[in-house]
Amino acid sequence: MSGDRPTLVIVGAGPRGTGLLERIAANVPALYAGSELDVHLVDPYPPGGGRIWRQAQSPLLWMNSHAEDVTMFTDETVTMQGPVREGPTLHEWAGVGGRLFADRQRQGAYLSWVYEQTVAALPPGIRVHHHPRLAVRVDGPREGRQRVWLAGRAEPLTADIVVLTLGHLDAELDDEQRALASYARTHGLVHLPPDFTADSDLSPLKAGEPVLVRGFGLAFVDLMVLLTEGRGGRYEGDTYVPSGREPVLYVGSRRGVPYHSKIGYDWTGERPPLPRFFGPAEVDVLLARPEGFDFRRDVWPSVEKELGFAHYHRLFTAHPERTTVAWRDFEEKYAVADAASLPALVSAAVPDPADRLDLRALDRPLDGVRHASHDDLQNGLRRYIEADLDRRHDPAHSPDLAVFLGLLSVYGQLVRLGDIGPRWHGFFSHLASGPPGPRLRQMLALSRAGVLKFLGADMTVTAEGGVFRASSGTVPGAFVEARALVEARLPHPTVERTRDRLLRELYADGAAATAEGLLAVDPADGRVLDRSGRPHPRRFALGPHTDARGSGAFTRPRTGGPAFRQNDAAARAALTVLRGPSTTP
Fold first, then answer.
1. Where does the FAD-dependent urate hydroxylase HpyO/Asp monooxygenase CreE-like FAD/NAD(P)-binding domain lie (predicted)?
2. Within this chain, domains 8-170+493-579 and 175-258+435-487 share the same CATH topology
3. Distance CA 89, CA 107 (A)
4. Which fold, 8-170+493-579?
5. Taking residues 4-30, what's their average pLDDT?
6. How many whole angstroms separate alpha carbon 28 and alpha carbon 124?
């Protein structure tokens, strides 16, 4: 590397690092034309897919989005300063059906192609270098060049700008997990802590033996697939034919149910005009409050009003026969209704309770539900999943899709508030980021085959009597014992407990601050904030390890993509620093 060439180091070459590079390429003509630049990508995994979306993983694992809903390219709906550079969605690039849930290998190939196209679009003076190593430390004077130290390399990379696009973080075990791991070692049990399921060693989970699984989200779906089809089982229609190598999975969680199915039909007709009750003006008010804000008290009422507006707008405009008043009359009263008067307004205008929006029931469907035995619970959960599949694939319930659009709108606004805690992200994932319908049908088949058994809500796990023991509030007094426990969820991405040495040292040195455990960044352009709240002039961070994380791994076309906006702002800020004060764009 030439010591006098401007240099940008991007730590993390997955989708976010690739997206940043794409924005660099898009903004170079206006901000950096004719100048030289070295770009160093640091990641032990291949550029494009990175660790999570690498092509070297099981072909049984799917994307969790329709192929038509995955893009790495901007469009005119993105509010940003840089130019739009359009490109194909996954389904257009791969030549597959838009409603297909593509496997992750194919997504990895798409991301690799995006990376290659982005590099090819850069002018000759900009060179890209990939270092298949871990970055372990960043140091350097605040106003001078930074040094990025790599594992197994004696000399650091010298950088004018460093951008951390690290993605999801591994984490050290918390107190509960350490205690469970210690108990497992002492008693010869199997304990698999929170991890990326595709990276977990599942070989200790033996055929025919019970396995307690805590977590009913997407990590569980991957686990379910790898321990069934991944061990030679197969589906014949709605029937699962075991291979005999499967363990018996006993799954529970806080909610006790899987995430809601992906919606299986397309939008038609008029869209709800969003945002309506939670938009930029409301966020400006919250940000201006000197005393700060509380999410449940100050934010959630507006979120609830926004989602209700989306739901009822669709119901009244697409299914007016199921309402008793005109939309304009309802909308006028809805706008001024408070929490106390809203139920009466909705009851009078929407006769069928199934047409009313009940966010609490959607979020916690087993609250207050009790079963006399685990056998009764299996039948009850199968009915619940079947009903969810029926509803989410029936356009007669299209207000559900309107709520999904409302959730995307809300998420786009919440990004400006920084991270607002795990409850919102869990709520969003449960309603909007559930598994494909076919996965839930597989779940039903596995349940009927006796390979999968449901434990219920508010699952608790104890270690006693030389085994793990699980119980839930849904079947009072009953419990299941097993010699294996799997925590089917991602590690909570806290900077304090991350295994990433680079972040841990930045935090320990006071050069990085946290918000709700995540790396604190300037929401304007992603600059890393120190503990005094000062943005670093040469260090940026983007992605789920920051408090400006977005709503998912990828952006749906024509939804305004907050991640695109963040990438563009960071790219433009970085190029402005790199070109120096004497150069005008």
1. 9-168
2. yes
3. 11
4. FAD/NAD(P)-binding domain (3.50.50)
5. 96
6. 12
Q: Tens of pLDDT along 108-158?
A: 999 999 999 999 999 999 999 999 999 999 999 999 999 999 999 999 999
**What is the token pair recorded at 347?**
């009851």
Place of tokens 């320990």: 508
pLDDT of residue 245: 98
Instruction: Show Cβ contacts of residue 156 under 8 Å, excluding neighbours closer than 6 positions.
Output: 147, 148, 149, 150
Tell me the torsion sign for CA atoms 281, 284, 288, 294: positive
Q: Which helix (H) or strand (E) holds 19?
A: helix 15-31
**Which residues does 358 contact at the CB level (< 8 Å), separation at least 6?**
none
For residues 526 and 536, give the distance between their C-alpha atoms in angstroms, rounded to a whole number. Answer: 10
Please tell me whether the overall predicted TM-score, pTM, comes out greater than 0.85 for this model: yes
What span, in angstroms and rounded, lies between the C-alpha atoms of 127 and 106? 27
CA distance 241 to 239: 6
Domain spans of the chain? Answer: 8-170+493-579, 175-258+435-487, 280-367+393-422
Contact 61, 29 (CB under 8 A): no
pLDDT single digits (tens) 299-356: 999 999 999 999 999 999 999 999 999 999 999 999 999 999 999 999 999 999 999 9
The first and second tokens of residue 217, run together, are 């989200």
- CA separation (Å) from 181 to 188, 195, 455, 468? 10, 14, 22, 11
Which residues lie closer than 8 Å to 264 by C-beta, 6 or more apart?
A: 99, 392, 393, 437
pLDDT at 491: 83
CATH number of 175-258+435-487: 3.50.50.60
Q: Using CA atoms, how far apart are residues 570 and 522, in angstroms rounded to an integer?
A: 10
Read off the amino acid at residue 285: V
Q: Exposure of 34 by Cβ count < 10 A (0-12 exposed, 13-18 middle, 19+ buried)?
A: exposed
- Look up residue 250 and give its two tokens: 């006993």
